[in-house]
Amino acid sequence: MSFKRKQMMGLGLTVFFLFILMFVILSMVNGMKANMLEIVEDRYYKVNQATEIRQLFYQTDQQLLSVLTDKDSADSAMTAELVNANHEGIQTRVINLEQELNRQKSKLLLKEVEQAYESYAQMQNSFTDLMGSGEMDSLEALYRSERENRNALLIKLGEFKEYQESLMADSLKSANETYSQLVSTLVAAVALAIVLIVGVTVWVIRSTGRNISLITKGIKEIDYQDLSTISRLNIETKDEIGEIAKAFNSMADSLENYYEKEQRYSAEISEQNWIQSQSASLVSIYSQHVTIANLADDFISRLAPAAGANLGVVYVKDDSGSKPVFRKQAAYADGAEDAGRDFFYEGEGIAGQTARDKKTVFLQDVPENYKVLSTGLGDVRPKSIMMAPVMLKDEAVAVVELASLRPFTDAQIKLLDKVIETLGIAITNISGRMEIERLLAESQAQTEELQAQAEELQSQSEELQAQSEEMQSQSEELRMINEQLEERSRDAEMKSEELQAAKEELEEKAKQLGLSSKYKSEFLANMSHELRTPLNSILLLSEMLAEDPDQVLTEEQKEFSKVIHTSGQDLLTLINDILDLSKVEVGKLEISFEEVNMGEMSQRMKQHFTQVAKHKNLEFTVSTSEEVPPVFNTDEQRLQQIVKNLLSNAFKFTEEGSVAVTFEKASKGDFFGLPLSIYTNDWLKITVLDTGIGISPEKQQLIFEAFQQADGATMRKYGGTGLGLSISKEFAQLLGGICKVESEEGKGSRFTLVIPNLPNGMPEIEAGSLAFEEAAVTAEPVPEVPEAAETKDAEGDTEAEQHSGTELKDKTVIVVDDDHRNIYALKNALKKEGMNVLTAENGMQCLDLIMGTEQIDIVLMDIMMPVMDGYETMKRLRGLDRHQDVPIIALTAKAMKGDREKCMEAGATDYISKPLKLDQLLSVMRVWLS
């Protein structure tokens, strides 16, 4: 065989074996690539999904734990939203895994995870339902009942993740085996090629051997325990060996990238788990302490080791002095009490500036002479100092300072930021707890005192009612005597002495009746003052507690305040009803005829009672006939009170069915025979229809009597004083109309109110034709409303609402009242508005205080006081050379007819009756100070 042929044969064999070698290498490389893709795309995706499921589960569990540790400030809506969002995220990822899993064991593990999570999800739903219904005390027991299932769920998630990671390891091992086979095959093929192509030129042998040596060396230098750095093959030939080198280099790049991502992801997961566990441990101590000192000591003793600090100090804000100061509450340094300053002011030093700027401050380059860490061998300079403000509603309530011999890591900084997010709430709750308990105890004592006085008032009112009935009986006897005298008028001369005696007796009885009415009026005025004075402080304090602008009360404590305020309002309503009824009886109730917008009236009734209907699951309708005029002339306040009384009764005695109110024009048959039927044909008919318990015919007149209901069982079951219908009947007569009832027991009732339209006010009619001739009726609106000051429309859309709300700030006000409870309530309320409050217990002290004070902006003056009352004080104040033009707002608890005029004549600028409404008082003050 010629050399050329041998050379060609050798070249052909070389090409042939190179082709086979390339095919084998490519096959193995593809196998390695497939294994790597399986590791990265398939296994890594499943591990990532499992990790995200566990992370979402941790978030949900952490939210539930935060609710258990701080039930009072927990937001049920936000918690439910987070739980539902995480639940949907877990379900989505479980479904994705079910679609991707192709191994039976993986499917079984995922099935076990799903079964464990279903029970836990049911607990989550029950947890949020209990939160929504306010049953906060049952949450912890519910959570603990799922603790074993929670641990089992975490174990199953861990097993699933470990199994997927083992599959990743198997795939990597397979890739390594393929690589080993590749090396073995490559070496064998090269050896065989060397034997077969001995005749190939020295250049081919040398170049091929050198490139293969480089590839072998590069592969052997791979550290499979650390794939962060893999050496590259520096082969630039354009043959098959060059392609292998490029593939190897590309594979090295991919391995390095994947290894780096895996290491970074593992580090992030570990850091997050550490932060979550440490923060949960720290947050759990908040509810275990009732004093700030104990909380701060326990908190810093746990936080400092967890954050890697060698020294820690907690400063808590103290607002008790004239200037807020941050005082040291606890320190961590092996019991070194001298660590850190005892106190500092906001803006003083770096710690004070931290509280002012509300930002965390880091000190890395600590000076050499800065030595605060003490050991048994001496003092040590820290390497890093961190100061963080504890915030609550954009206000720094505490400062935490940590020092360490090593720089703080990102994880330690994140831990500090996370735990101080809720520390401010815990500090504020503890600091306000004692003050809240004190205020609640005082309010309860005042409520008991007021209830005792109310019972005494009711007893005395019943006695007066009995006396009034006795007087009426005596008047009836006198009427009968008078009739007898008229029948015997023919024999007047013979009976003149008897007639004269009867006349004198009648005059004596009239004097007694007048004297009784006078005593009754004075008694009502005094009782009004004595009841409204303590009631004023109860309503003001309970309203301030219920509003809770600083958010220091628990939901239960807010509910207590609302109950106290509601009870006070109910008692005030009872007092007003008794006063109204008494005013009607003695003829001192004023009626003001004005234009009433009927559309607004019907809409107001609908808005007022819609929620009541929803609460009792009743159908409620308000309808207005097109014939009803848009404007009707009557007393709007009394009309509204009548309709509200009728609707309140309807809802009270209706358990199921419906309540309806209808506004329509009255027909002639509705007002035929009424005294004012000859003066106008324009009448309004208001009908209240219900499907309640109904009223028997023999008791339909009894219910219009004062303090009466259909029977005693009704009063015990449904409550109430029995004054509503009595007052409604009297008011209807005062308005020139009538209130009547049609009812069938067990089927419901229909109450009908018929009143006339009187544009010119009440006409002059013959005395005795109406039951309301004693009422003070005016054609024009009266200048005041007894229960609220109307000055410059202070009820809602006042000019005061157009101001910025800063009119009261830095103004000086003198509160003059002999009741310390009222002074306490007003003083706290006005100080919250930024006012300077001075107090006096009688008129003499007020005058002395005014003479010794340079700047006085406004005076709140009580009327009934010892030493010198409010009338005399205002008269003397207006006669002084200085401060004679200062605004004076008269505050009185009598609220009887003529009180306003007496106050204005004495020098008052405005007038408000007790109990006060805080918004109304502040509105009136802003008007006069603006």
SS strand fraction: 5-15%
* Spans of at least 5 consecutive residues with low confidence: 1-7, 710-717, 766-804
Count of DSSP-assigned helices: 22
Query: Averaged pLDDT, please?
Result: 77
Total strands: the figure is 22
Distance between the termini: 124 Å
Largest sheet report: 6 strands, antiparallel
Helix content: 55-70%
> Looking at the structure, what is the overall shape?
elongated
* Oligomeric nature of the chains: single chain
Q: Using only CA atoms, what is the Rg?
A: 45 Å
Please identify the structural class as seen in this structure: alpha/beta
The order of strands across the largest sheet is 3-2-1-8-7-4
Q: What would you note in describing this structure?
A:
This protein has 930 residues and is an alpha/beta fold. It is built from 22 helices and 22 strands. A hairpin with a 3-residue loop joins strand 15 and strand 16.
What's the short version?
The chain has 930 residues and is α/β, with parallel strands linked by helices. The chain has 22 helices and 22 strands.
List the keywords.
930 residues, alpha/beta, six-stranded antiparallel β-sheet, five-stranded mixed β-sheet, 22 helices, elongated, disordered N terminus
